[in-house]
Design brief:
The chain is an alpha/beta fold. The protein is about 45% helix and about 15% strand. It is built from 14 helices and 15 strands. The strands form four sheets. The protein has a seven-stranded mixed β-sheet, sandwiched between helices. The longest helix has 28 residues. The N and C termini lie far apart (about 50 Å).
C-alpha cells in the first residue's frame, strides 16, 4: 500500500471550524447564526441573467478564452475609480492606478498570495485579537509565528503593537480588518486609524488591509481606507462577494508597485487568471452606477436584521452578565459571556434548542478566549432572529 508523506506545511493545516459547524446547521429546523454567508435575498439574479446573455452574444469567444493574469481591464479600472471616489468622499484622496489592481479568485486568494510572497517559516505576522479565521488558515501553511496584538472597541491598541514589534524579529506585516470586523463587528475609530498608520510607518511595518465589509454600513460610511494614508506601505484587499454574490469568487487587491510583480507571479502560478467570463459579466453589471443603486438595499436589509437581533438580546439577556457590542454595519456581532463559561461546550446545548452560533475561540491566533461567541444576523429573517435569540437565551441561562 502506497504511503504518502505529507509536507510539513500540510501538517499545520486544519479544517475550518466554521465549515464544520455549518454541517450541524443542516439539521432540519435549526436557526443558524453561525455562517458568514451574505443573504441570498441580495443577489441581483435578474441583472446577472441579462449580463450573461449580453456577454455571450457580444464577446463570447473572448469571455470563454484564457485571459491576462492581471484581470479584465474594465473591471480593474472600475475598482480603481470606485476606491478613488470613496476615499475622496471620506476626505483622504487616493489616486488608485488600475495597473496596481490585481483581480483575484475571491479575496481569500489575495490572502494566500500575500502569504506566499511575504512569509518565511518562523517569521512573525501580527494580527488583531481576535481576527478572521480565514486569514489564519491562509497564513498558517507558510509557517509563521503569530503575534496577537491587543485590541479594544476602537481597534488595535498601539502600545501593545509597539511592544509586539519590539519583541519580534523582523515582523513581516500586520493584518487588520478596520471596518465591521469579522468576527467582532467592530470598526477602527478615525483617530485610531490615523495613529495606527503613523505607528506602522514609524515602525516600518507593512499593513495588509482587508475590507470585505466596508460597503455594508448602516447610517454613515466608514473613514477612508488605511491604504489611502499609506499607499506604499499597504496592500488593500476587497471583494465582490458581499455586494454582489459570493459564488462568483471574485475579489481584488491593490498593491504597491514594488510588490505587485511578485503578487502577479504568485497568481500566475496558482490559477493563471480569475475566470474571465465572471469578470466580464460583473463589469457589465456594474456599469452605469449599478452598485450605487444596489448596495443601499443590502444596507437597509442588514440594518433591520441587526436591530432585530439587538432588540432580542436586550429583551432576553439584559442583566445576565452577558454583554455584546452594537455594530454600525457589516454582518456580525460579538458576545462576551461570564469568564467561567465555555462557548464550545455550550454549542451542543444551543443546537438542542435548534439554534447555532460560532464559538469565539476559533478566531484567536493564540490564547483563545473561550467565553466569547459570534452571531451573524444577515441570513435569518426578523422572525427567525426573534425565535433564535429566545432559544439561545434559554441555553445560556441554563448554563448560567
Amino acid at each position: 500500500m502506497t504511503q504518502w508523506k505529507l509536507a510539513q506545511r500540510a501538517e499545520r493545516m486544519n479544517p475550518s471550524v466554521i465549515r464544520e459547524i455549518l454541517k450541524v446547521t443542516e439539521k432540519p429546523g435549526i436557526i443558524s447564526f453561525a455562517g458568514g454567508l451574505p443573504s441570498p435575498k441580495t443577489f441581483p439574479i435578474a441583472d446577472f441573467a441579462r449580463a450573461c446573455a449580453t456577454i455571450l452574444a457580444r464577446e463570447g469567444e473572448a469571455a470563454l478564452q484564457y485571459a491576462a493574469s492581471e484581470g479584465f481591464p474594465a473591471l480593474r479600472q472600475w475598482v480603481a475609480d470606485q476606491l478613488a471616489k470613496q476615499s475622496a468622499a471620506a476626505g483622504v484622496p487616493w489616486a488608485v492606478d488600475p495597473d496596481q489592481v490585481l483581480i483575484t479568485t475571491g479575496s481569500q486568494q489575495g490572502l494566500d498570495l500575500v502569504a506566499k510572497i511575504l512569509i518565511d517559516a518562523g517569521s512573525t505576522v501580527l494580527v488583531e485579537t481576535p481576527t478572521y479565521l480565514g486569514a489564519l488558515q491562509a497564513f498558517t501553511p507558510m509557517e509563521p509565528v503569530f503575534a496577537s496584538v491587543s485590541s479594544d472597541d476602537e481597534g488595535v491598541m498601539l502600545d501593545d503593537l509597539r511592544a509586539k514589534v519590539a519583541g519580534a524579529t523582523g515582523a513581516r506585516f500586520m493584518y487588520v480588518l478596520p471596518n465591521f470586523q469579522n468576527p467582532t463587528g467592530r470598526s477602527m475609530s478615525p483617530k485610531r486609524r490615523e495613529d495606527f498608520v503613523a505607528a506602522a510607518a514609524e515602525l516600518n511595518l507593512p499593513i495588509i488591509e482587508d475590507n470585505p465589509y466596508g460597503d455594508l454600513w448602516f447610517d454613515e460610511p466608514p473613514p477612508a481606507p488605511l491604504a489611502a494614508r499609506n499607499t506604499e506601505g499597504t496592500v488593500y484587499l476587497g471583494s465582490f462577494s458581499k455586494t454582489l454574490a459570493p459564488g462568483l469568487r471574485l475579489g481584488f487587491l491593490v498593491a504597491p508597485k514594488a510588490l505587485y510583480p511578485k503578487l502577479l507571479q504568485a497568481k500566475q502560478a496558482a490559477d493563471l487568471h480569475t475566470p474571465s467570463f465572471n469578470q466580464r459579466v460583473v463589469a457589465e453589471v456594474l456599469k452605469d452606477g449599478f452598485i450605487d443603486r444596489h448596495v443601499p438595499t443590502i444596507r437597509a436589509l442588514y440594518k433591520s436584521q441587526c436591530e432585530a437581533m439587538l432588540a432580542a438580546l436586550d429583551q432576553h439577556l439584559a442583566g445576565t452578565g452577558i454583554t455584546w457590542n452594537r455594530p454600525s454595519g457589516g454582518m456580525f456581532l460579538w458576545l462576551n459571556l461570564p469568564a467561567h463559561m465555555d462557548a464550545v461546550k455550550l454549542l451542543p446545548m444551543a443546537v438542542e434548542h435548534n439554534v447555532a452560533f460560532v464559538p469565539g475561540s476559533a478566531f484567536y491566533a493564540d490564547n483563545p478566549q473561550t467565553n466569547t461567541l459570534r452571531l451573524s444576523f444577515v441570513t435569518a429573517s426578523v422572525d427567525q432572529i426573534k425565535i433564535g435569540i429566545a432559544a439561545l437565551a434559554l441555553s445560556l441561562k441554563a448554563a448560567l
